[in-house]
Amino acid sequence: MSQESRIFTRLPFDSAVEWRDLTGEDGHAAVRDVSRGGFRLSLGRYLRPGPVVTVTFDHITFNGAPVELDAAVVWCKPTDQPDTFLAGLKIIHGGAATLAAASEVFYAAMDQRAVGA
């Protein structure tokens, strides 16, 4: 996706997350940037574009529970580092709670940016 076609502001964000797909595979990743529409992960394996994964932000809560967002893998590519990949995920907005939970993640990125500034 080109920079010109983005409709949401993207903020740098450094947060550990866990992910799992519909087949039960799971792993750990680090969020590198986030927007209200999606986020970019750094992870230790390739994720095929298309499938839905659930990403859990253990350190960010909404309604008293860790934020979990369902997202479709849009792209994934290797980096210059061995066994390291970057993946772009698009949040699947299925209801009002999804937007509120995604906003909590975005606000956490804004807070992290303000503290680091």
Descriptive tags:
117 residues; alpha+beta; Thrombin, subunit H; 6-stranded antiparallel β-barrel
Shape: globular
CA-CA gap between termini: 28 Å
Q: What's the CATH superfamily, by name?
A: predicted glycosyltransferase like domains
Q: Spans with pLDDT under 50 lasting ≥5 residues?
A: none
Order of helices and strands: EEEEEEH
CATH architecture: Beta Barrel
CATH classification class? Mainly Beta
Described by strand count, sense and barrel closure, the largest sheet is:
6 strands, antiparallel, barrel
Named CATH topology:
Thrombin, subunit H
Kindly state the number of beta strands: 6
Number of DSSP helical runs: 1
Number of domains: 1
**Order of adjacent strands in the largest pleated sheet:** 1-2-3-6-5-4
Overall pLDDT metric: 89
Percent of residues in beta strands = over 45%
Structural class computed from helices and strand pairing: alpha+beta
Q: Fraction of residues in helices?
A: 10-25%
Q: Rg, please? A: 14 Å
Assembly of the depicted chains? single chain
Topology:
Blueprint: E1 11-21, E2 26-34, E3 38-43, E4 52-62, E5 65-78, E6 85-91, H1 96-116
Antiparallel strand pairs: 1-2, 1-4, 2-3, 3-6, 4-5, 5-6
Brief rundown of the structure:
This protein is of the alpha+beta class.
Describe the structure.
The chain has 117 residues and is of the alpha+beta class. It has one domain: Thrombin, subunit H. It is built from 1 helix and 6 strands; from the N terminus they run ββββββα. The chain has one helix at residues 96-116, and strands at residues 11-21, 26-34, 38-43, 52-62, 65-78, 85-91. It has a 6-stranded antiparallel barrel with strand order 1-2-3-6-5-4. It is globular, with a radius of gyration of 14 Å. 25% of the residues are buried. The model has no long low-confidence stretch (mean pLDDT 89).
